[in-house]
Design brief:
Largest sheet: 7 strands, mixed
Oligomer: single chain
Number of strands: 11
Helix content: under 10%
Radius of gyration: 13 Å
Number of helices: 0
Strand content: over 45%
Length: about 120
């Protein structure tokens, strides 16, 4: 079993920056990809970005391209989400997730493990 733990959430003014981290623990960890998702009340969980674990290839939703950066440390089993130029629409609970199978990294339903989430609030 794999456990994921996010950290780094908080409140920031629009235009500011935050860095989220996700640490994985448990059995030998070698996922296909790690993803970040976010959710606000009454809405579906939406894809933010992902990184392939072996190659480090990154994927982002259009609205965060150029503002968010995902990186991973395969030795420490951590994945970070660096967020800059934050906007109020970026507010939500951010989740990291891991998947063991190939396929579209944007699909939340294909992820096998999830963290508990961390709140990000961007004030205007």
């Amino acid at each position: 079993q794999v456990q994921l733990m996010e950290s780094g959430g908080g409140t920031v003014q629009a235009g500011g920056s935050l860095k989220l981290s996700c640490a994985a623990s448990g059995r030998t960890f070698s996922p296909y990809a790690m993803g970040w998702f976010r959710q606000t009340p009454g809405k579906e969980r939406e894809f933010v970005g992902a990184i392939s674990w072996s190659a480090g290839k990154t994927y982002y939703r259009d609205s965060v391209k150029g503002r968010f950066t995902i990186s991973r440390d395969s030795f420490k089993n951590t994945v970070d989400l660096q967020m800059s130029s934050l906007k109020p629409v970026d507010t939500g609970v951010y989740y990291c997730a891991a998947r063991n199978t190939l396929g579209m990294v944007e699909l939340a339903s294909r992820y096998d493990y999830w963290g508990q989430g961390t709140q990000v609030t961007v004030s205007s």
